[in-house]
Amino acid sequence: MARRVTAVSLACLLAAGLTPPLRVEAAQAAVCAAAHALRVPWPRSPRPEDVARVMTEVARRLAGVTPPARITVPTWVHVITGGVRPVSDQDVEAQIKALNSAYGGVYGGVDTGVRFKLEGVTVDENALWFTDPVGYERPMKAKLHRGDAATLNLYIAQLSTQMLGFSSYPFWYDESPGLDGVVIDWRSLPGGPLSNYNRGFTGVHEIGHWLGLFHTFENGCALPGDGIADTPMEASPTEGCPPGKDTCSNPGTDPAHNFMDYAYDRCMSEFTQEQAERMHQMWAVYRHAPVT
Questions:
Q1: Which helix (H) or strand (E) holds 156?
Q2: Which of 137, 206, 234, 277 is flagged as catalytic?
Q3: How far is CA 48 from the centre of its chain?
């Protein structure tokens, strides 16, 4: 199991009569939901080439929208505790700073034009939610969720070492608004106890999904990859900090430093220009935030 796993709703896949293997379930569910929202016909076959074709058509239709030039995301942070509060207000502010730095191009890559404004912090003691935010996702979010499609709800609890965070996609909002948001492990915040994942980039990665991005290794070496032209294809997720990783014969080395891969935090540093454009397109279609 990969260290970052995106939350999956099977409703779209089941409606299409699909039962794909777990390893591609998340990607197919996400693409299926986007295709449904944009009225792109979904094939009744789980073959990778069919999913790739749908991704291409979804990207083509997204290219026709007029996105905002800049996006400010109102953000509510919900800290769940099992008794002792795991992170302070200062830790939360450090996470928001890491988000703004990553999306602002401070570590490398482009300035995506996306910024996060902390609206408030809630603190709730619930041992079940703290240790199992996946199993208790619905009641946790039912109580704590704030705002609308344009509001980021960031939940901080404790997950396993195999799953440091999970996120909803923007095209799931209309069907399940109460489940919208991102959940991350408190140990992944800047300065946390996980030595390889403690720069706040689990939050950066998962919020990338919340803004509509797929993993850079989506579809492996097969077209259209992650649907983003300036992220070279890669056959498998990046683990650790391998130098010069190049797993596909297509031009370009693997985007191992991209925030949407799985490298150690110290090796992550960038979003690309076309990833930034995709975030803005998705925002215009699904989140409808005011232009700032």
A1: strand 152-157
A2: 206
A3: 21
